Amino acid sequence: MIREMRAAIFDLDGVIVDTAKYHYLAWKRLAKEHGFDFTELDNERLKGVSRMQSLEILLEIGGLTVDEAARAEMAAQKNGWYIDYIRNMDASELLPGATEYLQRLRARGIKTALGSASKNAPLILDRLGIAALFDVIVDGNKVSKVKPDPEVFLRGAEELGIPPASCVVFEDAEAGIEAARRAGMGTVGIGSPEILRKADIVVPGLFELVLVSA
Ligand code: BG6
Ligand code: MG
User: Fold this and answer.
1) Cα of 10 to ligand 1 centre, how many Å?
2) Is the CB of 120 under 6 A from ligand 1?
3) Do the Cβ atoms of 175 and 49 come closer than 8 Å?
4) What pLDDT digit, counting tens, does each position of 29-50 carry?
């Protein structure tokens, strides 16, 4: 299907900013404390997924069963480590081409939104100073259903006032591509074609789109 892109909706972690590695390091540390290993391949299952759901997957990988209070404590511990990693972050952690591509779209009259599962999105946007590049911001504090549910992207389209069929989502996670497809939106996978098989197209990073849209 050929669609006119009237709005671009961006995932945050792993698309705009290189925080995916910090999520991974924090989860790996938690796994280690509980006596099991957590690989980069395991980590693919956590991308785009909420904090609590990520923990469920991690516990399944480690073969652990823990009660709700312990789960809440583990998630808080992981988030504490994650925040330690990101609190001193600056614009150098923006992924190549992210700012340029956003600016270019906006200059062409295309609306931009953030569609992230992260509850830490406000802190990250503040550290990077890029909030003004988005017409609308939808993050993990605003939605109740998590990717692959389409809520985060549908809410973005609604707040922008653009029909879903005219929106394109930029995502590095399998769960995010699935969410965008369920929302009826176009999909650009950011990363590896082996993992993002269901995306309409896959590019290694937004820098590639800056090069081809000169
Ligand atoms: C997503 C990440 O953007 O946000 C996931 O891809 C993460 O790995 C999720 O679990 C929730 O993030 P946070 O910052 O609310 O723990
Ligand atoms: Mg992501």
Assistant:
1) 14
2) yes
3) yes
4) 999 999 999 999 999 999 888 9
